[in-house]
Amino acid sequence: MSLLDVNNLTVKFDTPEGIACPVDNISFTIEENQVVCIVGESGCGKSITARSLLRIVPTPPGRIARGEIKFSSQHGPVDIAQLDSNGETMRSIRGNEIAMIFQEPMTSLNPAYTIGNQISESIILHQKASRREAWKKSIEMLELVGIPSPAQRVHEYPHQFSGGMRQRVMIAIALSCRPALLIADEPTTALDVTVQAQVLDLLSKLRQENRMSVLFITHDLGVVAQIADVILVMYLGKIVEKGTSEDIFFKARHPYTRGLLDAIPSLSATQRKRLVPIEGSVPSSIDLPPGCGFASRCHLATSRCFEETPEMTSVSFTHEASCWNMPARESGDSVRPERNADS
Q1: Domains of the chain by range and CATH?
Q2: CB-CB contact of 135 with 220 (8 Å)
Q3: pTM over the 0.85 mark
Q4: DSSP state of 80
Q5: Per-residue pLDDT tens digits for 251-308
Q6: For residue 217, which of 41, 57, 96 has the smallest C-alpha distance?
Q7: What is the longest distance spanned by two Cα atoms in the chain?
């Protein structure tokens, strides 16, 4: 059994304007020691998907309308979608077996408590450790994520750390209980390129050392190219293309995926090209009309695209896409972004 199996997950929000559906019938799998990346523009449902796995979608107005989230817990297989979000089983999984790094560490860390207290809290709660043991483990975790003088800095407060160091603290908190699955929701968005590269290298190193699976959420395909085993391209609540890193960067078939790739700037003199933005913006997920959600922004759209919703179609053993008019990408026509020289 896989570590995590998501089947036909649908999340809805009851709003005064109508029922919004930010996650619409999605399915994917995460294996042990695998990095799965979800990519897409803001408003495509990436973060709601991640929060659903931990049952931290605000309720109300949000709710899991249907679907399964099967997780191989250390206590046996469970369907997270059926658990009480505040029940004992879900609390034992959240933060212990599945941990999450949020986008902005300054809003996630409590300014009134020291870094040591905030790391210790998770260890005491989930590992049943004494305060002395938890404090010792907090220092070890700061050292693990590369923060210098951890025995001194464990007494400091969040405002005394730089943005990159605060993100390392968030990683230390998330990893303090050695989770089987780490969810990273845009963890490098607020960081400059150099610090971003350091954080990505750290996550990669820690993932290998701990044989941990990672669900990485981002809008930055340049980041994805460095770390992904499997990529899920998400648009308007649906997964429109899925495949390995090679499938997506070398053989993308969905027009939305190709649009994202064509908007990546290149540093290579041999690959210089004019950036082609995707026209328009992601529409509202309230009372969606029939057809493909990307049709109104797609230059390949036909009348069928506005009337019928395409199903996921197998392109190869590892590659699927949902489009009525999938363009072929020539073999060897690579759009894989190269790593920044500062990295």
Answers
A1: 1-343 (3.40.50.300)
A2: no
A3: yes
A4: G
A5: 999 999 999 988 877 665 556 667 778 888 898 899 888 899 999 999 899 999 999 9
A6: 41
A7: 67
